[in-house]
Amino acid sequence: MSFANPADLVGLVGFNIDQVHPEIVMHRLFAALPVPDDLADRLEPLRVDVYGARWRRREHYHVTLCFYGKVDGEVAHELADALDTVRAPAISLELSGVGWVGRKEPRALYARVAETDALSDLAEQCRKLARQFRLTLGQDPFVPHITVAYCNQSPLEAVRAWSEDFQILRSEPYLVDAFHLYESFTGHRRQSLYVPQADYTLV
After folding, report:
1. Would residue 193 count as lying in a domain?
2. Helices (H), the chain
3. How far apart, in Å, do the first and last CA atoms of the chain sit?
4. 3-class secondary structure, 179
5. Cα separation, 108 vs 24, whole angstroms
6. Contact present, 175 and 90 (Cβ < 8 Å)
7. Where in the sequence is the domain holding 51, given as residue range(s)?
């Protein structure tokens, strides 16, 4: 497996590598489920006028299973190999309302994904590997969701109104038969690029 070199992405996302040590490249990794196109279509109505909301492009949509943070090349490869030991069935993704991050100062808007035993178990297997590699995990409980926008000084009242309008969001279940180890790069104007570095089948 060959992880993307940030220098190879300069033309694509304006990635700034001025401060990257020439011999030490850290990889910002997370395990996640991709969002099927049909499910992404169901998220389009959420993109209304909310002050300060920067809506994510659909290629950014995913359901995070575990955020591993920055690791060196050796750990990145070992983690990618270890994830191949995860065993789980195909996962059914179903939308179930909306919410926001940041109780009084909204930082992000998201669509909730209904939690199932299979989804929770898959996330726990991914988190267990993080602990195995002694990576620091956040203390927040696993809440499956799809981030649809980041907020910059969005008024709480506007976000609450958005949430009330779309709390009825529901969808039929969509089956996902694989998850990925993604690498996150930040480009010009803090635009993100998520590159799948390894694929894992769910059967």
Report:
1. yes
2. 10-13, 37-41, 73-82, 117-132, 156-166
3. 22
4. strand
5. 32
6. yes
7. 6-201
Let me know: does 80 contact 179? Beta carbons within 8 Å.
Answer: no
d(CA 8, CA 28): 16
The reply to whether 33 falls in a domain is yes
CATH number reported for the structural domain that contains residue 137 in this entry:
3.90.1140.10
Q: How many CB atoms lie within 10 A of CB 58?
A: 16
Note the pTM of the prediction, 2 decimals.
0.88
Express each pLDDT in 35-47 by its tens digit: 999 999 999 999 9
The DSSP letter of residue 57 is P
Place of tokens 């011999």: 23
Contact between residue 29 and residue 68 where contact means Cβ atoms under 8 Å apart = yes
How many whole angstroms separate alpha carbon 162 and alpha carbon 157?
9
Residue position matching structure tokens 């939308």:
95
**pLDDT tens-place string over residues 133-192:** 999 988 888 999 999 999 999 999 999 999 999 999 999 999 999 999 999 998 666 678
